[in-house]
Write a structure and sequence with these properties.
OB fold (Dihydrolipoamide Acetyltransferase, E2P); 181 residues; three-stranded antiparallel sheet; 11 strands; nucleus; Abitram; single chain; six-stranded antiparallel sheet; GCV_H/Fam206
Length: 181
């Protein structure tokens, strides 16, 4: 009996993400309802762009047909090459710079944005070959991109983002609204 009580009182240790990253959110990106993005900010300034749990791609059992980092004829995020300590050569992104486009098997298309200003360090090429990573592990192996904000902007980069508590409040209000038919 004592061992059962002990097991109940033991808390599961926090995940790597919860331990080392701060979660920030952007709700209804560019006015698109429920198109929520999550930014995982590490203490070393590096930010990982992922889909929020509430993003439509992760809802209703959708499956991904394609992920495309080709933003326009002259711009592919796959061509991003960084080098050196200061990460020279990385594409500079604004808050609303598109990172990739996701097409689901039902032909619904979603554009994923950077949400923050900074230098693009890398895009996740693994999700091109295995798009299910985005569905199964969106915060870890299924991330979209890694961005490094300018040192001067590293404190202010989250000003336009929501904390987890603020985001959960918005989601709960959204869930309480009657659905349009």
């Amino acid at each position: 009996m004592d061992s059962e009580t002990q097991k109940d009182t033991e808390l599961e240790p926090p995940s790597i993400i919860d331990r080392y990253y701060t979660r920030w959110y952007r709700a209804d990106m560019k006015g698109q309802p429920c198109e929520d993005h999550c930014i995982l900010q590490h203490s070393n300034r590096i930010c990982v762009v992922t889909l929020a749990e509430t993003h439509p791609v992760l809802q209703n059992g959708r499956t991904i047909k394609t992920i495309n980092y080709q933003i326009s004829n002259g711009c592919s995020r796959l061509n991003n090459k960084v080098s050196g300590k200061s990460k020279r050569g990385g594409q500079f992104l604004t808050d609303f710079a598109p990172l990739c486009r996701i097409t689901c098997t039902d032909e619904t298309k979603y554009t994923i944005y950077s949400c923050i200003r900074g230098r693009l360090l890398e895009v996740n090429e693994n999700i091109l070959e295995r798009p299910n990573l985005l569905l199964e592990k969106p915060s870890t192996e299924g991330y979209i991109a890694v961005i490094l904000p300018k040192f001067e902007e590293s404190k202010s980069v989250t000003e336009n983002l929501l904390s987890r508590k603020e985001f959960e409040s918005i989601v709960s209000k959204r869930d309480q609204q009657p659905q349009a038919s």
